[in-house]
Amino acid sequence: MTKNVEVLALCKHRPIAVIGAGLVGAGWAVVFARAGLTVKMYDTNIETTHTAMRLIKEQLSSLSDHGLIDEDPGTVAARITPVPTLNEAIAGAIYAQESVLERVEVKRGLIRDLDACAPQDMVVGSSTSGIPASEFSLGLPISPRVLTVHPVNPPYLIPVVELVPSTQTSIESIEFATSLMNALGQTVVHVRKEVEGFVLNRLQAVLLREAWALVQEGVVSCEDVDKTVRDGLGWRWSFMGPFETIDLNAPQGVADYAERLGPLYQRIAQSRQHDSPWDAGLIENVASQLRQHLPLSELEERRAWRDQRLMEIASARRTKQQ
Amino acid sequence: MTKNVEVLALCKHRPIAVIGAGLVGAGWAVVFARAGLTVKMYDTNIETTHTAMRLIKEQLSSLSDHGLIDEDPGTVAARITPVPTLNEAIAGAIYAQESVLERVEVKRGLIRDLDACAPQDMVVGSSTSGIPASEFSLGLPISPRVLTVHPVNPPYLIPVVELVPSTQTSIESIEFATSLMNALGQTVVHVRKEVEGFVLNRLQAVLLREAWALVQEGVVSCEDVDKTVRDGLGWRWSFMGPFETIDLNAPQGVADYAERLGPLYQRIAQSRQHDSPWDAGLIENVASQLRQHLPLSELEERRAWRDQRLMEIASARRTKQQ
Questions:
Q1: Which residue has the higher pLDDT, A95 or A310?
Q2: 3-hydroxyacyl-CoA dehydrogenase NAD binding domain location, by residue (chains A, B) (predicted)?
Q3: DSSP labels for B56-92?
């Protein structure tokens, strides 16, 4: 914990660069600024940074309404400065979070630019969800200081971040990013190999594949899959992980559980290969089921509702921790 | 909704039989009694019903403390009568919930007994999680009135129940059980085919298989898997299902999402067969990781903590709905 505090103190003397000011970049700017850090925000399109500033002010105002920041939203927003060039963003920066377009040549170009002009000790976290950092960050002097720091959207509400080293990331960079993220109040998950989808999206993917397959086979409707999770499985998973959950579900803990239920789970796995594509007919089926309850025109409203619920959860958790 | 109210009114004139008074049966007794229904509780071991009554009184008292029942716990408990014979349990009963031992010959024997002496219109819901009702309920006059009504433990806190017809269950019986469960405040999920693990356990199973595999490959620790769900994925799943979640995660909804991310999910599925057993070494690895944070001796305490958290969620939801 001392280490986290030290790193945060260090970061207060030097700016944080937020590179790429879309939804993800804007979310990161909030995370850094609410912790008291100075943020320089850059995007190849200057207009995007202005849009981001408007969004950030709205988000900070919502956070304030839910008791999720203690300072005035204006005070926090004032720590974020849109800048017109990459050089201005990284001048003196101790850490850069890049959230540019999810295309390997774009990421590679950016890392090359950073290599040319970033401070010699600046660490770079990439928000990439789909491209391992090893595909765009190797073979340069900066390489040991680049790693994946993958957030869930929005990072100022949902704490988990996946830290994934490339094959050339140094231990020091991982340690720095870990301390920084912990100090910011994020929950760090260490992913030790660059597997596709990292951990969070892999776990989501297998559950989704099974859900789609069950709908395809006519076993269950989309609405009933949603009910199964929302009013069943998801309750425990909102405060305990899957291992913690099964550890409590057999008298002698997880090993006991594995012995009792492992064979059932293996049979379920064997019954399904999961590797067929979601074809057009299935997508049409799922979409039409969902559109019955929620017209496309109401998606935006529904997103706002979701964000409200997430804020309530964050707020309840914050109260508990204080 | 009118139908649910009608069914509940009908049930108030005739008792509900709870057969098998272990943890699951006792939980069901609470669900019926708190809705104002008269419950006759039977177990082949009379001592088990007395233990169940003590447990039920504790549970009702907890529910009352969390504002989850409006009546006095004693008033609710008084609706539940342990009886020494199966005949007394089902005399005049409109519905029986069986939660006897999860062994096919035990279930089959019970259904045969019920066939011989239950009221001609009594519907039987089985709490089976692993044995499809078609394996123990076919070929008898009572068969059209037997179906799976699979709860999550404890059913008085977690609302979801899976309704699964056998190959001989009548539509009327499904409709009756649906109305009854809805009237009791449970969330009904219709599982249309008797697939192994039904829906809830299948969804849990695939996520667990992936989690175990990632630990086996050294990608991530058990603790970090738990964090990924508890501080990431699980937040949304506590109030939205997986389809609802992805529907909001692409500008044009679920079809748009499937087009963007379907290929990634397919690659993840293709990268894994999931059908190898959890071997002794892996179980030992997982158990030793978990035991570092939570000694076996503290499991019971931790279960009590879990139940407190579930009550808080149930209580928050109840307040919202009122």
A1: A95
A2: 16-194
A3: HHHHHHHHHHTT--SS-HHHHHTTEEEESSHHHHHTT
